[in-house]
Amino acid sequence: MLGKLMKYEWNYIYKKFLLFAGLMAVASCVGYFSAAQFSKLDPDSNPLLFMSIMFGLMIYYMILSGVSIGFTIIIGIRFYKTVYGDRGYLTHTLPVSARQIYWSHIIVDGLCQIVLCVLMQLSIMMVSTRMMAALASDITLNASDFYMQMYGADNPVQLLVVIFYSIFGTLVSLIMVFASIVLGQYWKRHKVWGAVVSYLIITTCMMVVSWVTLIPQFVYYVFNNASPDGIVAIPSFFWISIMLISAVFGVVTFLIMDHGMTKRLNLE
Amino acid sequence: MSELLQIEELVKAYGKGQKPALDHISFTVGSGRIVGLLGPNGSGKTTLIKLINGLLTPTSGKVLICGEQPGVASKAIISYLPDRLSLPGDQTIGECIAYYRDFYKDFDTERAEQMLSSLQIDRKKRIKALSKGTREKVQLILVMSRRAKLYILDEPIAGVDPAARDYIIRTIIGNYDKEASILLSTHLISDVENILDDVILIQDGSIRLSSSVEDLREEKGKSLDAIFREVFAC
Amino acid sequence: MSWKLDSDRPIHKQLLEVLLTGIVSGTYPSGSKLPSVRDLAMEAGVNPNTMQRAFTELEQKGLVRTERTAGRFVTDDREKIERSRDAIATQQLTLFLDKMQQLGFQKKEIVSFVRSKIEEEKNE
């Protein structure tokens, strides 16, 4: 039954996925093209070119952020409609368990979200390397060097850890969205606003916890390890802390979602 | 040997201080019966139906379908027609049929196609493009095309024109099976009273009356419609 | 068959009346096979269990017999059907006579009244 649920979920989401991936491709072209013009960048001699390059990069950035946020919203709306809307009457009377229902969403929508995330990383890498090449044509930067610089990884293993975190983080964020929707149902009225507020509360808690645990660690590290020119690479324990926090929040919100859907279902 | 549907001291309360929506309801439905669940708006009919379908969790008491609490097994043998449109708007009727066939082993595709054609409904149309009456007919066709053990129909004829009502009632009769039962909730009593075996009248979360319809006619010399009006007079 | 049913009275009794009328009038001839309970229930717009109850009563009266695999048949016993027809007709006649007497008709008057009305109908 889980396979069947996943099949129908895929039939719905792949069209949205392709749409967003397409948007990202278009944005990447705009960004790439703007980045390539960087060599001719000179605000004084050609202000129009300067503005159009900046505009192009801004569009690139906005579309990329938009894709990320937009896809999450679409997944959230889909979950809400399928589980709690009028359509919920059909979904919950199928011979499936509530767990199979949410797993089908997590697996299929999560996979699409992860792929989009990867594509986004590739896009950023492509555009940034092109920009660097345009700025200083004598420096050749290959992909892994670029990544290691950007994420402060000293070796490929750390880089993999960072990549793993992005994937893991995407799934945690997805589960948090679903849990917020489940929590929103406990509001007597305005269940949608309840979901939004729950989401804000959860993400704020996570941010607060992150700051509280990470800033002291970071400050301590900087005092003991700063190199003379003030450049500091992000230490790997940093990433471990972030991942632990994500894991804890992920597990807690997952349990909230599970409990809400299996034991406390109350379809309007 | 457990009954098809057993409700034991069922209570559903929404808030601590509030009056419960269902207050210690108990009844049994055997197989091969067509039972009417009648009552004014807000009487608790829909709450009861949702509890049987596992869409709500009880505050206390039991809902047992063939001896089991609502779950995956009970959903496989219950065919439910909700009082709202629950079909996906962007799908075609044909796609909905495929969906039902995919999830329900007891779905009879031929029957569904035959009912669609006798009502002259085009299976290629999208749900959102259909009129309200047609959408209701399609939902009913999908529900009645299953060979389920318990059919729960929440207002099956309310939004439909009189000619279609006759068709629907005849379909319900024609679908009759000794091994299955139908629980029918409606306020259009005079239309359905001739097909009911038993009736349960609910008001304010409690059962006011539970009896075979023929016995009531014998006893009171009145139609079910008239009895209802008496019991629930404003 | 005309299935005009009145929701104020038990349906199974009314179904029995209609079926009896059908049998004694020859609509369901002696020895013939009756439609299934479900088909008749659909025709009449009633619950199959109720129709079944009417059939069971017919069987008890001996007017219908069930052959397990073949279905239900009207009895071959034509005399029995005749007797039932007589019984129903007698009932109707008794009601008629009572009513006519209530209207003040004498017995001789009733017979000539009936005769003249039938003559009128023949001439129309």
Q: Which structural category fits the helices and strands of chain C?
A: mainly alpha
What overall geometry of chain C do the principal axes of the alpha carbons give? elongated
* CATH topology term of the largest domain in chain C: Arc Repressor Mutant, subunit A
> Uncertain runs of chain B with pLDDT below 50, 5 residues or more?
none
Q: Outline the low-pLDDT stretches of chain C.
A: none
Mean pLDDT of chain B: 91
User: Considering DSSP H and I runs of 4 or more, what fraction of the residues of chain B is helical?
Assistant: 25-40%
How would you portray this structure in words?
The complex is a heterotrimer of chains A (268), B (234) and C (124). Chain A is an all-alpha fold and 268 residues long. Chain A folds into two domains: 1-141, no CATH class; 152-268, no CATH class. Helices cover 80% and strands 0% of the residues of chain A. The radius of gyration of chain A is 22 Å and the shape is globular. Chain B has one domain: Rossmann fold (3-Layer(aba) Sandwich), CATH 3.40.50.300. Chain B has helices spanning 45-52, 72-77, 93-103, 109-118, 132-144, 162-174, 189-192, 213-220, 224-231, and strands at 5-12, 22-29, 34-38, 60-65, 78-81, 150-154, 181-185, 198-203, 206-212. In chain B, the strands form two sheets. Chain B has a six-stranded mixed β-sheet with strand order 5-6-7-3-8-9, with helices on both faces. In chain B, α6 (162-174) links the parallel β6 (150-154) and β7. Chain B is globular and about 45 Å long. In chain B, 45% of the residues are buried. Chain C has 124 residues and is mainly α. In chain C, α1 (11-25) crosses α3 and α1 packs across α4. The chains are: A mainly alpha (268), B alpha/beta (234), C mainly alpha (124). Chains A and B meet through α3 of A and α2 and α3 of B.
